[in-house]
Amino acid sequence: MAAKSTKQSPIPSVWARPQREPDQPTLSRATIVREAIVMLDAEGVEALSMRKLATRLNAGAASLYRHVATKDELMELAVDEVAAEIHVPPAHGPDWRAAVGEAAHSFRTTALRHPWLGAVLGQAGLAYLGPNLMSYSERLAALFTAAGFPDPTIAIDAVLSYVIGMSTTEAAWLITVARSGKTEADFIAHLMPAAQQAVADHEHLAKGYAETEEAATTDPAAMRDAKFAAALEIVLDGLALRLKTQTS
């Protein structure tokens, strides 16, 4: 009886196989990824296909597949490419809270600039193996390690869980607003009567709604900024307390 093959299946990730040489000078993996990001920013994940992308690049689909085997691989590459835009301050600064806050705000800014990012982070295969995401994680780990956290990965998870969750929700909201054809303030004003009626019978929700109603219609972007920053401070308060108890 023939012996069973011990050869393992290749890992389904673009980072697990070597990059092929370009078959034409004008087409490269970098060119493909940059154009894919333009499409993603303008039209969203659902509108992106290898066929449409090839058409925009004036290339055949087969040429794209020489560089990127599947749409899943393309998403891994796109995620890693935009991750290079996220700023993390250097470690060993005087104020770790301010540095982490700066990194968190930079992530949010990037996620809102590329509104598809948060929604696909958990679906983009082994995207975390990409060089830019690995560098981002390493810089965050260095920052938390310098601050004195015994296990920086827990602190990173706490911050990113908040930032990704808030950014994904916020990006989805802004996409909804954009599709309405209205400004954000006008869209909120249009929803206001229905929202007021919905919360009328919920005492605590109604109180919070009344307090934010004016800000929501006068400067909704500033209100979103303030809400993100305020809740981030609560996350950082928790990390500061954790650090104090672990190092005391």
What is the number of helices? Answer: 11
The general outline is flat
**Residue-averaged pLDDT:** 86
List the uncertain runs. Answer: 1-6
- The rounded distance between the terminal residues' Cα atoms is 65 Å
Q: Work out the strand percent.
A: under 5%
Estimate percent helicity. 55-70%
Please state the structural category. mainly alpha
Instruction: Count all strands and give the number.
Output: 0
Order of helices and strands: HHHHHHHHHHH
Multimer state = single chain
Biggest sheet record: none
**Rg result:** 22 Å
Outline of this structure?
By secondary structure, the chain is an all-alpha fold.
Task: Please give a structural write-up.
By secondary structure, the chain is mainly alpha-helical. Helix content is 68%, strand content 0%. It contains eleven helices and no strands. Helix 7 crosses helix 8. It starts with 28 loop residues before the first helix and ends with a helix.
Features:
0% strand; mainly alpha; 248 residues
Layout of strands and helices, then pairs:
Blueprint (H helix, E strand, L loop, with lengths): L28 H15 L6 H7 L4 H5 L5 H13 L12 H18 L3 H4 L10 H17 L4 H29 L3 H16 L3 H16 L1 H28 L1
